[in-house]
Amino acid sequence: MSEPGYQLIDSGGGRRLERVGPHLLVRPSLQAVWAPALPDREWKRADAVYERAEGQKDRWQGTIPERWTLAIDNLSFQIRATDFGHLGLFPEQRANWQWIAAQVARARKDTGTQPRVLNLFAYTGGSTLAALAAGAAATHVDAARGVVQWARDNAALTGVEGAPCRWIVEDVLKYVRRAGSRGERFEGIILDPPTFGRGSKGEVWKIEPEIVNLLAQCRQLLNPDGGFVLFSCHTPGFSPIVMQNLTEGAMRGLSGAAEYAEMRVPERDTGRFLPSGVCARWSSL
């Protein structure tokens, strides 16, 4: 049984106070340079705090279970307090998950067929879950075997483990090259590339020199009769204008509508938002 929901309670001073299912957590948030809205006593109620200390190992302090589950809309996630401070959940993507579901529904209505969706750098699979729950057939690609299994666990929690999905552990650049050579086509392509990473066999990924080529290959995989692309990232310096220039360059010559925005998480009571990356949403459906 999933515990309900996620809430950002407060942010500021380089940190965020968040309720993740039944647990109140404090984690770093470098963009939160403003002052917290709540008094310190509210922050001290946290069950656990993830601390970064110069010259020391980052760590969790407090008492929380090794893993638990929660639900956001119709999706369920297994939460794990990892050694590097991530939880396997990215609530700033919630609006994107809703957009994916709407695009899949539109493609199903327009074509009468099951749209194929490719999710690259797919991590714990929030976007894959959104596509599957909306009725798509998905291909989920990530270089880390452990997080692909984590995504499969999330699919089981969401109740879509029986939906058509290929779970692929492979370097993303290798996969898209092979898929292009085989003539594969998708009605939806989702990518959330990291700033830096390593593939399953030690391949080095750096977003700045690689992203233009990757987007060009994604265009080749997109069904020319109609499709959508969701491109998001958390790289410092990547603004909505950068995303617009990259996406318009990749999609030049195709007829479609696009929007570019900061991803953000609303605070529960203050009306403020915590910025959390950027995204480009393009669709010709």
Features:
285 residues; alpha/beta; Immunoglobulin-like; Rossmann fold; 7-stranded mixed β-sheet; 5-stranded mixed β-sheet
Entry summary:
The protein has 285 residues and is an alpha/beta fold. The chain is 28% helix and 33% strand.
Explain what the structure shows.
- With 285 residues, the chain is of the alpha/beta class.
- It has two domains: 3-80, Immunoglobulin-like; 91-283, Vaccinia Virus protein VP39 (Rossmann fold), CATH 3.40.50.
- The protein has seven helices and 17 strands.
- It has a seven-stranded mixed beta sheet with strand order 11-10-9-12-15-17-16.
- α3 (126-133) runs parallel beside α4 (145-158).
- The chain is globular and about 55 Å long.
- The model has no long low-confidence stretch (mean pLDDT 95).
What is the strand and helix layout of this fold?
Blueprint: E1 3-4, E2 6-12, E3 15-20, E4 23-28, H1 40-43, E5 48-51, E6 59-62, E7 67-72, E8 75-80, H2 94-111, E9 116-120, H3 126-133, E10 137-142, H4 145-158, E11 165-169, H5 172-181, E12 188-191, E13 196-198, E14 204-206, H6 207-221, E15 228-233, H7 240-251, E16 257-266, E17 273-283
Parallel strand pairs: 1-7, 4-5, 9-10, 9-12, 10-11, 12-15
Antiparallel strand pairs: 2-3, 3-4, 5-6, 7-8, 13-14, 15-17, 16-17
Helix pairs in contact: 2-3, 3-4, 5-6, 6-7
